[in-house]
């Protein structure tokens, strides 16, 4: 696997190597020791999956305090624009984001460490999204950063009028109201 650093420290794009022939392909999507050599000591405790249609935006979610989560995400069907926003206190990149297109065709992955808000929008007709987390879901510590906050200036690549959001995601907090981690 190739580990590609981004403009924000601790955030990685991971490109598995695919070995293909007329039958299809094979690739390793996660290898613990290799992951720890590049990223550091993260122990994933749960795998999650979502299925969404075009325009669905999920996020920008995060959990506070001891319930904060690191995530390793990938798409097994379709394409998404995946976004991580730095909320770490004292970080020189606080409030900045990294956006990466993830697709089943490329097989690329995105690692988001603790201290980030995370979300994605579906660019294809449908998308199956899979992610590993290093901490369990804790609804009492969950919060949502507003996806369309002008301070973030995220280009989601599709018009807001075409987005489908949950009530929770429509009512996210602006960056100015977020207490850094």
How much is the radius of gyration in Å? 16 Å
Q: How many β-strands, per DSSP?
A: 13
Distance between the termini: 30 Å
Our count of domains comes out at 1
The main sheet comes to:
6 strands, antiparallel
CATH superfamily: Jelly Rolls
Shape category:
globular
**CATH fold type:** Jelly Rolls
Indicate the CATH class. Mainly Beta
How do the helices and strands follow one another from N- to C-terminus?
Answer: EEEEHEEEEEEEEEH
Percent of residues in helices:
under 10%
User: Which second-level CATH architecture applies?
Assistant: Sandwich
Classification by helices and strands: mainly beta
| Number of helical elements | 2
**Order of strands, widest sheet:** 1-2-10-7-12-5
Mean pLDDT: 96
Describe this structure in words.
- The protein is globular, with a radius of gyration of 16 Å.
- The protein has one domain: Sandwich (Jelly Rolls), CATH 2.60.120.
- β3 and β4 form a beta hairpin.
- By secondary structure, it is mainly beta.
- It has helices spanning 32-38, 167-170, and strands at 2-5, 12-15, 19-21, 24-26, 46-53, 57-63, 71-77, 79-86, 97-103, 109-112, 116-122, 126-133, 142-144.
- It contains two helices and 13 strands; from the N terminus they run ββββαβββββββββα.
- It has a six-stranded antiparallel sheet, with no helix packed on it. A five-stranded antiparallel sheet has the order 9-8-11-6-13, with no helix packed on it.
- The protein is 6% helix and 40% strand.
């Amino acid at each position: 696997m190739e580990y590609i650093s981004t403009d924000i420290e601790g955030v990685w794009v991971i490109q598995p190597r695919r070995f293909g022939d007329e039958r299809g392909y094979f690739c390793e999507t996660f290898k613990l020791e290799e992951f720890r050599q590049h990223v550091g000591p993260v122990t994933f405790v749960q795998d999650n999956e979502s299925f969404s249609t075009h325009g669905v935006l999920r996020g920008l979610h995060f959990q506070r305090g001891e319930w904060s989560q690191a995530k390793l995400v990938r798409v097994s069907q379709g394409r998404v624009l995946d976004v991580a926003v730095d909320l770490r206190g004292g970080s020189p990149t606080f409030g900045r984001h990294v956006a990466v297109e993830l697709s089943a065709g490329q097989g690329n992955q995105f690692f988001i460490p603790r201290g980030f808000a995370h979300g994605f929008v579906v660019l294809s007709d449908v998308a199956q999204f899979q992610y590993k987390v290093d901490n369990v879901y804790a609804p009492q510590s969950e919060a949502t950063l507003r996806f369309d906050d002008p301070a973030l200036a995220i280009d989601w690549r599709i018009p807001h009028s075409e987005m489908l959001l949950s009530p929770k995601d429509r009512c996210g907090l602006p960056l100015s109201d977020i207490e850094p981690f």
